[in-house]
Design goal:
Elements (H helix, E strand, L loop, with lengths): L2 H27 L3 H16 L14 H18 L3 H6 L1 H29 L6 H11 L4 H11 L3 H30 L7 H16 L1 H18 L4 H25 L7 H14 L7 H28 L12 H29 L7 H9 L5 H9 L8 H10 L8 H30 L7 H27 L5 H26 L3 H29 L5 H19 L8 H5 L4 H13 L2 H26 L8 H27 L1 H29 L5 H16 L2 H4 L2
Helix pairs in contact: 1-2, 1-13, 2-13, 3-11, 3-12, 3-13, 3-16, 5-6, 5-8, 5-14, 6-8, 6-18, 7-8, 7-18, 8-9, 10-11, 10-12, 11-12, 11-13, 14-15, 14-18, 16-18, 19-20, 21-22, 21-25, 25-26, 26-27, 27-28
Length: about 700
């Protein structure tokens, strides 16, 4: 029996258990989980010195573990829900922040750190300061976005920060690999060809991923397309897409040094593409679990890494007190660099009005919340240390630059990086939520207030109707009915009063707000029933994406207070490159089956929208319900157009369409069959074994003729 393996396993399980209870405790005392985990990790350091608990240190945070196991999960999960179309709407502010951060951080962090430390008689070579700059330039969106979600920060603000952080990470990693390579291959003689090699290394790291990403996207899309109705396998495939992309990029970089690829960019882009396009190749039932799966794995990765990072402090031989001056200088220099790199580009954008105005409150938060975490730590740990493959080359570099300190370059940079992480987590992360609330950035918009009170009215109206039904059936006493009726009528009256305040006295603005809110509600209904058709394979992936893209574009235009419906020429401006390619293919083929399937789907979802809007319109919202009538009239027209087009295709191509229609109608009955089986199972009329057998037969019927639908 391997006692070391048992101790490592016990250490891992104990740390996971501690992380879980820390999470529960953080929710109870309402303290950010990551910050509380840092405190727990620091407390574990002295505990691990006790002989009985020394096994805690047996599960170590090695560079390989962090680099090849945890980092791909964190990168993939961070980018999984990113909608790249949002980037196109805010690309000027995002690129400006990323570029200015690169330039300013170079001038301020690198040069100021180098000059100030040398003025203080701490002779740190400029290449070491340069390496620290590349590491500390990598900002981490994961921790901040977790806080944003809890306090409902503005969506655009979160988006700008997330994309800017990702671009910073891409550039930082590319520069770090180049600077580290320069150190390991250091020579006093530098030829012109050497500069060309350095430039090529950097550009290849930034852009070499394109051909690699296209291959990986094609590969995993093909694999996902071939797999249907297998939840476990499809989830594993997405996990493999993160790790395989990461590992292959690293292998190519390691074995073909003349063509390095950024593993950060490759993994992040793979995640974005899978979420935006590859997700439709995933079985619909699996997609519902995918988000939870990645959140779960990111939770484990973050928890273990957050605790283990502080346990690594006990292994660092360099005393922090000896480097207190470099630590303070580094933290102050990074803060100043961040402030300058945020206010300059945003001031230019606001003055030129080339993009939507960014408020001063946002500028302050953008300059304050630049947290460092897993990626910065990973890069610091990648610097060769004792027992590493290239440690002799690093020693040779230290000797060539007359490194006269008792600690190594790796320990020096690691101490500065960990100190910066501690500062950002204990000072910045703890104050972000306070500043967001203090600056009123989490308050609801006018539309959100309207929707909130509209929902409260809907809920209370339905509850009152249910109460009346229960009382009439003698299921509750009269006294209970009267008391509950009074309570919910009060809540209904309060919501109605708030709704009146939101609408105000300006009838034109009130009508505009009502129309927007009801239109968004209608689009939500469209999307819901379209997804339902896709789940039961009544519409194939290609046509599902076409209709869904139109729904999303209309939703985006409404959120930007633009006209919901546009002419065909104007509509093309909203298409991205993938949608344009898809549209051109469709126009060339003009597939009759596709046209029939799309119009049939439009007929169904518009009918559902009309039905639900009519039900809602009968509720008294204390405002003019004529707007409901206008929206219903628009959808009645859509319904008629889709139905007429479907019937024309049916008459013209009757022999080809009838078999298809029969299969589609059969699929619609699968919903009813599934509901009946679920009900029988809940009532224990059938056993679980029989239920599973029925369920497998239903799913086989749903997916058995996918290819026939796309002929």
């Amino acid at each position: 029996m391997d006692i070391d393996f048992l101790n490592s396993t016990l250490s891992f399980l104990l740390l996971l258990l501690i992380s879980s209870f820390t999470f529960l405790f953080s929710r109870k005392i309402k303290v950010n989980y990551t910050i509380l985990l840092v405190i727990v990790g620091l407390l574990l350091v002295p505990i691990s010195w006790i002989p009985f608990f020394s096994f805690i240190n047996d599960f170590k945070l090695t560079p390989d573990l962090l680099f090849f196991v945890f980092l791909p999960v964190l990168l993939f999960e961070a980018a999984y829900n990113i909608n790249y179309k949002e980037l196109l709407k805010n690309y000027k502010s995002i690129f400006s922040l990323a570029i200015f951060w690169l330039i300013i951080s170079t001038l301020v962090i690198w040069w100021w750190l180098y000059l100030i430390l040398n003025l203080l008689w701490i002779a740190i070579p400029f290449l070491v300061c340069l390496l620290f700059w590349t590491i500390i330039s990598a900002t981490d969106p994961v921790a901040v976005l977790a806080i944003f979600k809890s306090v409902w920060a503005p969506k655009r603000l979160s988006l700008i920060f997330e994309w800017e952080s990702l671009f910073n990470d891409w550039t930082a990693v590319a520069l770090f690999m180049v600077i580290l390579w320069i150190m390991l291959e250091y020579s006093w003689t530098i030829w012109a060809s050497t500069y060309l090699v350095w430039t090529w290394q950097f550009l290849s790291m930034l852009f070499g991923w394109i051909s690699f990403w296209l291959f990986m996207w094609w590969l995993f899309s093909k694999v996902l397309w071939k797999i249907t109705n297998s939840e476990d396998v499809e989830i594993v495939i997405t996990m493999l897409s993160a790790h395989v992309t990461f590992l292959l990029a690293e292998l190519i970089t390691h074995n073909f040094s003349y063509f390095p690829i950024s593993w950060v960019i490759a993994t992040v882009v793979a995640s974005i593409i899978i979420w935006n396009y590859g997700r439709y190749k995933i079985t619909p039932r699996v997609e519902a679990h995918m988000q939870k799966f990645w959140e779960f794995f990111a939770f484990i990765a973050n928890s273990i890494v957050f605790i283990l990072i502080w346990l690594t402090l006990s292994h660092i031989e360099t005393p922090f007190r000896e480097l207190i001056i470099p630590i303070i200088v580094a933290i102050l220099v990074v803060i100043v660099a961040r402030i300058i790199s945020v206010y300059i580009p945003i001031t230019i954008i606001n003055k030129t009005k080339c993009e939507e105005h960014i408020p001063k409150q946002w500028q302050f938060l953008l300059s304050w919340w630049s947290l460092r975490w897993a990626l910065a730590l990973t890069m610091a740990l990648l610097i060769p240390g004792p027992w590493d493959e290239k440690y002799n080359q690093m020693l040779a570099f230290q000797n060539s630059i007359w490194w006269n300190f008792e600690y190594s370059i790796k320990d020096f940079i690691l101490v500065l990086v960990i100190s910066s992480i501690i500062f950002t987590l204990f000072i910045k992360a703890t104050t972000i939520e306070y500043f967001i609330k203090k600056l009123w950035l989490n308050k609801l918009s006018t539309l959100e207030v309207f929707e909130y009170n509209e929902a409260k009215i809907l809920v209370n109206v339905k509850i009152l109707a249910k109460l009346k039904s229960l009382y009439e059936k003698s299921h509750i006493l009269k006294e209970e009915y009267v008391e509950l009726k009074w309570f919910y009528e009060e809540k209904l009256q309060e919501a109605s009063s708030q709704l009146k305040k939101v609408l105000g006295t300006d009838k034109i603005k009130a009508k505009e707000l009502l129309k927007k809110a009801i239109s968004l509600h209608a689009l939500w209904i469209e999307k819901q029933y379209l997804q339902n058709l896709f789940n039961y394979n009544e519409i194939d992936e290609k046509n599902f994406i076409v209709i869904l893209a139109k729904i999303k574009r209309q939703k985006d235009r409404l959120e930007f207070w633009q006209r919901q419906f546009k002419k065909v020429a104007e509509e093309d401006k909203w298409l991205d490159i993938f949608e344009k390619i898809s549209k051109n293919i469709r126009l060339k083929n003009k597939d009759i089956i596709d046209r029939y399937v799309r119009n049939r789907a439009k007929e169904i979802i518009t009918r559902k929208v009309i039905k639900e809007l009519k039900q809602i319109s009968h509720i008294d919202f204390w405002f003019n319900n004529e707007v409901f009538g206008e929206i219903i009239e628009i959808y009645e027209n859509f319904y008629k157009v889709a139905k007429d087009k479907k019937e024309i295709i049916m008459k013209k191509y009757r022999l080809a369409i009838l078999p298809l229609e029969a299969r589609l109608i059969n699929k619609s009955f699968m919903k009813l069959e599934e509901e009946i089986i679920n009900d029988l199972h809940k009532k224990e009329i059938i056993t679980t074994k029989i239920y599973i057998q029925f369920f497998e037969e239903i799913e086989e019927e749903i997916y058995n003729d996918v290819k026939q639908l796309t002929i």
